[in-house]
Amino acid sequence: MPQRTPLQRRMDALLETLEKEGGVVRGAKLRSLGHSERAIAAAVASDKAVRVRRRWVALPHADAALVAAARAGVVLTCSTHAKRLQLWDPGGDKAWHVAAPPHSGRVSVAKGTVVHRAKPLVARDPDALEDPIENVLVRVAECRPHEAALTIWESAFRKQLVERAAMAQLPLSSRARAVLDDAQVFSDSGLETIVIPRLKWMGVPIVPQAWVAGHRVDFLIGDRLVLQIDGGHHVGAQRDSDNRHDAALLLAGYRVVRVGYRQVVDDWPSVQHLIMVAIAQGLHLAA
Predict the structure, then answer these.
(1) Residue 51, SS3?
(2) Model-level pTM?
(3) Fewer CB within 10 Å, N or C, the chain?
(4) 91-120: pLDDT as tens digits
(5) Same domain? 27 vs 84
(6) Are residues 81 and 168 located together in one domain of the fold?
(7) Does residue 154 share a domain with residue 206?
């Protein structure tokens, strides 16, 4: 096997760094890590790397979103980066969201992209193509409806991507502060974020993840009304288990309203009507 030349070895080291750093790296950072311009040029000439404008270098298989951000001179933020972090989002926002420096010129991005130019609360690393989580949450609060922002914030708290107390120390806008004030650190899922505020006006106690008849239920409304929300996994053995628990709840004197996840997200008025009628009939009260 032919021995690799010093330049080939330097190119191999460069490609390893690119892979380790996420596939898209500023040329200045590569040079600060000891990689020469000659090694970068050799990797590009051999199609093992590509230049993204003049400032960035990427692997051919690098994340397309990061490459696009580097090409436009922006960072991914708001709902776009929240989705990449797998934060719970009730949907409704299909636009791409990026952030640009407040006083930058025209940004070349795809039609329909939302460009945020507000000064970030947390300084952006010039080597980063994704906004810090604190900036992401603030942009979400400013851009999305309160309920959607609340689900994203609580999801970030559940995933321990940021501490609620740390967010409270930032100079938040009034909209971001309102989201923080309503956010619960121990909310079990985004559905709790949606359901509890939507039913709060009825003045009936609602306990999420209550332990009833040997199992947890999604929501216990009042004394005896159980709201169960089925996701896509409620089939087969899970469905059999749910049916057995529904029977146990009935025998114990509880009433069950079981709806699907998509009903809650896409057809909330019908779900709310079911609960309103059940409460009007007194099904939430102990006998």
Answers:
(1) strand
(2) 0.78
(3) N
(4) 778 899 999 988 877 787 888 899 999 999
(5) no
(6) yes
(7) no
